[in-house]
Amino acid sequence: GENVEQHPSTLSVQEGDSAVIKCTYSDSASNYFPWYKQELGKGPQLIIDIRSNVGEKKDQRIAVTLNKTAKHFSLHITETQPEDSAVYFCAAGFNDMRFGAGTRLTVKP
Amino acid sequence: DGGITQSPKYLFRKEGQNVTLSCEQNLNHDAMYWYRQDPGQGLRLIYYSQIVNDFQKGDIAEGYSVSREKKESFPLTVTSAQKNPTAFYLCASSTGGGMNTEAFFGQGTRLTVV
């Protein structure tokens, strides 16, 4: 089955700086790669996703890149703000979805 | 409002007891999922169902059971066979027969064994 690894487990940045979170996956059949943001005590919410036929996708301050050959994908957040502080999860899959262990992002004002 | 609802938010169980967690969605989604979340381990898939009356084991199905008698509902039973049931449980749903579309998560149920 699919195995997703996510790094780093914690990330602290200054407000206005960029943050990058990286994930690798094992199953070449995976074709969908979403990123979720989870705030304390709540369920995760989708922030951006990418499919295997696309190499990069942007939505305002967030972007995701995918390298299918190397089986890795990354989340980029630019101009970080304190409200970006949360736990971020990557996921990968085809018919079912496997998640990374999460990255706790802290944005210091 | 459309969404996915888990209840209760907090649940306490005595050792040796079975307990059922509720998950209901009114999004008309075919697929539903249960995940377990432990600190530092992300979300681990327990069971998933792509259609009514059918479900598949995930990575950590031992000690859990599910049913999918209605499209809207996917209850999870934590049985006494689950050795370490204290965790945060998340239910999700998505369109189509697979999870290669956006998954909508409930707010979670925190289960504590006392």
Produce the secondary structure layout.
The complex is a heterodimer of chains A (109) and B (114).
Chain A: E1 4-7, E2 10-14, E3 19-25, E4 32-38, E5 45-51, E6 56-59, E7 62-67, E8 72-77, E9 86-93, E10 97-99, E11 103-108
Parallel strand pairs in A: 2-11
Antiparallel strand pairs in A: 1-3, 3-8, 4-5, 4-9, 6-7, 7-8, 9-10, 9-11
Chain B: E1 4-7, E2 10-13, E3 19-25, E4 31-37, E5 43-51, E6 54-57, E7 64-66, E8 76-78, E9 87-94, E10 104-105, E11 109-113
Structure description:
The complex is a heterodimer of chains A (about 110) and B (about 110). Chain A is an all-beta fold. Chain A contains no helices and 11 strands. Chain A has strands spanning about 5, 10-15, 20-25, 30-40, 45-50, 55-60, 60-65, 70-75, 85-95, 95-100, 105-109. In chain A, the strands form 2 sheets. In chain A, strands 2, 4, 5, 9, 10 and 11 form a 6-stranded mixed beta sheet that branches. Chain A has a 5-stranded antiparallel beta sheet with strand order 1-3-8-7-6, with no helix packed on it. The mean pLDDT of chain A is about 95. Chain B has strands spanning about 5, 10-15, 20-25, 30-35, 45-50, 55, 65, 75-80, 85-95, 105, 110-114. Chain B has no helices and 11 strands. In chain B, a hairpin with a 2-residue loop joins strand 5 and strand 6. Chain B has about 110 residues and is mainly β. Chain B is globular, with a radius of gyration of 13 Å. The model of chain B has no long low-confidence stretch (mean pLDDT about 90). Classes of the chains: A mainly beta (about 110), B mainly beta (about 110). The interface between A and B is medium-sized, with 27 and 28 residues.
| Number of distinct beta strands of chain B | 11
Strand content of chain A: over 45%
Shape of chain B: globular
Average pLDDT of chain A: 93
Number of helices of chain B: 0
Q: Largest interface, and how many residues on either side?
A: A-B, 27 and 28 residues
> What oligomeric state best describes the polypeptide chains here?
heterodimer
Radius of gyration of chain A: 13 Å
State the end-to-end CA separation of chain B. Answer: 35 Å
Sequence stretches where pLDDT stays below 50 over 5 or more residues of chain B: none
Q: DSSP helix count of chain A?
A: 0
Topology as H/E string of chain B?
A: EEEEEEEEEEE
Residues in helix, % of chain A: under 10%
Indicate the overall shape of chain A: globular
Rounded Rg of chain B: 13 Å
Query: How many strands, what sense, and barrel or not for the largest sheet of chain A?
Result: 6 strands, mixed
Helix content of chain B: under 10%
Order of helical and strand elements of chain A: EEEEEEEEEEE
